[in-house]
# Entry
Amino acid sequence: MATDRTLEPEYEVPPDGPAATCPYCGRPFRADRYVTFHVGVEHAEECTDAEHEAFDEERDDEEYDLFTFHFKAAISVFLVYFLFTFVYALVWAG
Ligand SMILES: [Zn+2]
# Structure
């Protein structure tokens, strides 16, 4: 689906190579802050206190709002799809 790129913008890597990579799994990112997000979410159990603090600080940023927005958008798409299927089933049954 075309929305996949929109939902995971941090996984896009520029042609000239990643600006930063995850110290835990080596995944490339466009910027340090994306690594901070990634570590805070994916490696919450194994990351250091400093990395967790950095993640908490970044969460207040507008970038995190965007991150949350993408998450909500994904849920919304799912709900609309579910509702559409439900309504379609009702019409079909009627
Ligand atoms: Zn990682």
Notes: Helices lie at 4-7, 32-42, 49-59, 62-93. The beta strands are 20-21, 28-29. The mean pLDDT is 82.
